[in-house]
Design a protein that fits this description.
It contains four helices and 13 strands. It is of the alpha+beta class.
Length: 220
């Protein structure tokens, strides 16, 4: 999967992104077939994915350490990328309290595409994961607060991975010490909450998971 999704509020921003990277080498048509079968649920396990890639003549490497969401000086940065014909293309999202910006990067050329203000969800990903995320937003967003936005981000990540999101890392500002708190748990049913766990941790995800997800929050 490839999905970065953010909500920009007046007092803060939250961004989520998967940590999976699929590196493929094969013709474009076969790669598109593999992607469609993966995201519409025909391919369920990593073993199924590897076997189908082999059948389509595609060389495949699966990694779960791609950091698509980072934080730089209080600004959340999300990025999705692809390489085609030796040319690297990236779409990058910058988000903080009250505003965001979208940019495209081709090799070393950076072009600013769009800017926006608070009250927006922004989605980066392939066509299938974007459709899933937008559908989740339409169904669940009722002009709520940051807690509701985080729940929608978590639900979007879960749906995009066919209910198979396995680990979540949430970073929160520690207003008492001027540092970021980190909450991390492996899910085996309901999230393991502690007395120090912030309310944003209550995402409502209930399934056992296998694709890593990173969620970060900044508050002004």
């Amino acid at each position: 999967m490839s999905l970065v999704i953010a909500f920009i509020g007046a007092q803060g921003a939250v961004m989520a992104g998967d940590m999976r990277e699929l590196i493929t080498c094969g013709d474009r048509v076969s790669t598109e077939i593999l992607e469609q079968e993966l995201y519409n649920g025909q391919i369920v396990t990593d073993d199924d994915l590897k076997k189908r890639a082999e059948a389509l003549g595609i060389s495949l490497v699966i990694r779960d350490d791609k950091r698509k969401v980072t934080q730089r000086d209080g600004i959340l940065v999300g990025e999705v990328s692809e390489t085609e014909g030796g040319v690297s293309k990236k779409r990058r999202l910058y988000a903080t309290a009250g505003e965001y910006a979208l940019a495209e990067i081709t090799d070393t050329d950076l072009r600013l595409n769009r800017k926006g203000k608070a009250g927006n969800f922004v989605v980066l990903g392939n066509q299938v994961t974007q459709q899933i995320a937008h559908s989740c937003i339409r169904e669940n967003w009722k002009n709520g607060g940051m807690h509701d936005a985080i729940r929608i981000l978590a639900l979007s990540m879960e749906r995009a991975s066919n209910g198979d999101c396995f680990r979540e890392r949430i970073v929160f500002p520690d207003t008492h010490h001027g540092k970021n708190q980190s909450f991390c748990s492996y899910r085996t049913g309901q999230p393991a909450l502690t007395e120090r766990s912030p309310p944003y941790a209550r995402t409502g995800m209930k399934r056992v998971v296998s694709v890593k997800t990173c969620i970060m929050v900044v508050v002004s």
